[in-house]
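Exercise 7b. C-alpha cells:
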C-alpha cells in the first residue's frame, strides 16, 4: 500500500500501527441474510429488519495485542464513524454478527448497539486515528460503509478483520 508524503496511507481502508509502520487490515467479504423483513414491510419500515453477517474462516489472518491504534483512510465525504467496529462470534468455520439497523425506508447502516465506540482524531485529509485499549480476546472487524442489499434479501459488504490474542 502506498503512503503519501506526510506518511499517511493513501489507499482507502483500515490500518493498524505495527512496529511503527501502517499495516493494512485484511479485507474480507461479509454475506448478509435478513431476518424480519416481512415485519418491516407490514410496519412501513418502522420496525428494523435484522441482518446476520457471516465471514468465512474461524479467525482473521491479522492477530494483534492491545492497545491497538487504528488508522482509517475514508473515501471523500465519509465519516470515520461510518466504519463500525464489531465483535464477531466465532463459529466452527466462520465468524458472525447481527447488524440491526436496516429499515426499508432508507437503509442507512447507522451505528447499532453492537458497535464498539471509538474516539477518532483527525490526522490529515480523510484520515483519522483511534486507539482501542480494552478489547477482549476474540475476533473483530470494521464494517465498511455501503453494504449493498439486493431485492432477494441477500447482500454483501466489506469487513476489515483482526483478532485480539492477548
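Sequence design result:
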Amino acid at each position: 500500500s502506498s503512503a503519501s508524503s506526510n506518511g499517511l496511507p493513501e489507499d482507502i481502508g483500515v490500518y493498524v500501527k505495527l512496529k511503527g509502520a501502517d499495516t493494512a487490515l485484511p479485507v474480507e467479504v461479509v454475506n448478509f441474510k435478513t431476518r424480519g423483513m416481512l415485519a418491516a414491510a407490514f410496519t412501513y419500515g418502522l420496525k428494523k429488519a435484522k441482518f446476520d453477517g457471516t465471514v468465512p474462516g474461524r479467525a482473521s489472518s491479522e492477530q494483534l495485542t492491545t492497545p491497538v491504534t487504528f488508522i482509517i483512510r475514508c473515501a471523500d465525504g465519509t465519516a470515520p464513524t461510518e466504519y463500525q467496529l464489531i465483535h464477531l462470534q466465532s463459529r466452527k468455520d466462520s465468524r458472525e454478527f447481527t447488524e440491526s439497523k436496516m429499515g426499508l425506508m432508507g437503509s442507512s447502516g447507522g451505528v447499532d448497539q453492537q458497535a464498539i465506540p471509538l474516539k477518532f482524531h483527525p490526522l490529515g485529509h480523510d484520515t483519522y486515528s483511534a486507539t482501542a485499549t480494552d478489547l477482549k480476546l476474540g475476533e473483530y472487524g470494521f464494517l465498511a460503509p455501503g453494504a449493498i442489499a439486493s431485492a432477494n434479501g441477500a447482500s454483501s459488504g466489506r469487513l476489515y478483520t483482526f483478532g485480539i490474542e492477548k
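Instructor comment: Confidence is low (pLDDT under 50) at residues 102-111. The longest helix spans residues 37-42.
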